[in-house]
Amino acid sequence: PWCCAAACLAMILNRRDIRHASQEKLGWYMGLVVPKEAEKLFNKVRTTDEEPEAGYGTQLSKEEFSINHYFSENDIELEETYYPPKKINNYEEFIQERFNEEKDIIVVYRYEKLFDDGSEGGHACLIKKVEDGKVTLIDPGYTCKSVYREVDLSDLKEAINYHGKENRGGFWVISKKKT
Question: CA nearest 78: which of 122, 129, 14, 165?
Fold first, then answer.
C-alpha cells in the first residue's frame, strides 16, 4: 500500500528496459510516508501520526523526492514533466499526442472521486489508452480485482481537479531527456 507512484515508475522503467531500484526503494527515494502502524510492512520508511494533505504515499512535490531528482541521481536519461489539469484544454487529444510521441503518462487523482470502494487519498495509475471518452488505466492498487480499469474521461478529469495542483494532481509525462 501507498506505493502507487513508485509502482508506476517501476512499470515505466521496466517497459523501457532500464535497471532500477526495487519498488520499495523507489518509494523511499520518492519520499514515501506511511502511518506509524504500517511501519512493519517496510524495511525502511518514513512514518507520521498525522496524514499528509495529499494522503499517505510519496512526496513528489518536494524537489528532493521528485522523479527528476531520482533520474538525475541514477544517470537515467529520462525526464518527468508535470501538467496540471488547468493547463490542458482537451484531455483526450493531450493523452493521444503523448502516446504518439512514445511518452508514458502517470495520472494522479483523488481516488474516492473515481472509485467507491472505501479507499481514500491521492492515487497514481498509468494510462494505457484513451478512446471515445474512455480511459484504460493500469492500476497498481493492491485492492483492485484487475490491473486494467476503464473509466469515463469526464470522471477522471473531475477526480484530477479535486486532487488539485497543490497535491500534483494531473499528468506526469515521462519522456527521453532532451539533449
Answer: 14
